[in-house]
Specification:
By secondary structure, the protein is α/β, with parallel strands linked by helices. The protein has helices at residues 16-29, 44-49, 82-90, 98-103, 123-131, 145-163, 182-194, 208-212, 220-223, 228-245, and strands spanning 4-7, 34-38, 65-66, 73-76, 112-116, 134-140, 168-175. Helix 1 (16-29) packs across helix 10 (228-245).
Amino acid sequence: MPPIIAVSNQKGGVGKTTSVVNLAAGCGLAGLKTLVVDNDPQGNASSVLAERGQGTSIYAGGQPKPAGQRPNLWVITAGADLLEQEQILGRQNGGRLTLKQRLAPMADQFDVIFIDCPPNLSLLPINALLAASHLLVPLQCEYYALEGLSQLLAYVDELREGAQANLELCGILLTMFDPNHPLAVQVEREVRSHFSERTLPTVIPRDVSLAAAPSHGKTIFDYDPLSIGGLAYLAATKELLHGLKR
């Protein structure tokens, strides 16, 4: 089985989808056949990698399709049905394992799989956490970051105990970093002191190119690969892949 990476944080606005599409694109550029599963009803990853609302979700039988002309990159879009699918999952016995079951027959076609999760701990991200082998947490460098991280990791521990989740924390990715802001520097220091081995060395800076790329339906490597954001995601991709090999 390839690494299946759930990218999750119950707090919104932390650069989660930005991290999914750019890390996945980076893996594709590295020669790895990479799949992005858009598991967020907002469909933001789909709007970058495909046409928003195109096709159906993986829960309704959606299949991988090429993410435009990007090398080695494939996507299963959120589809217009994803919000309805969450309600259906809630009425099914074993609904929390549906994503794991849907991914199983296609997983060996890919070298790495990313699952983009909505900013909550509802049935959709629970499905992702139970389907995944690894957890990546994008973490904004701001005051409440550590508290939210502690809550997420405590919840993952509960899933491990109660649902036999086989999930390893493969990385914490610090995002929206401003080196001139004392609070951001303090948050980075605290995260590294508590999770030194699991925090990726690279931090993702605040960058106008990262903010603009999605509005053009592009990853940072399509839009401005030599921007500070592009170089940061390239470095973070290398670090993530190195960690997965250990």
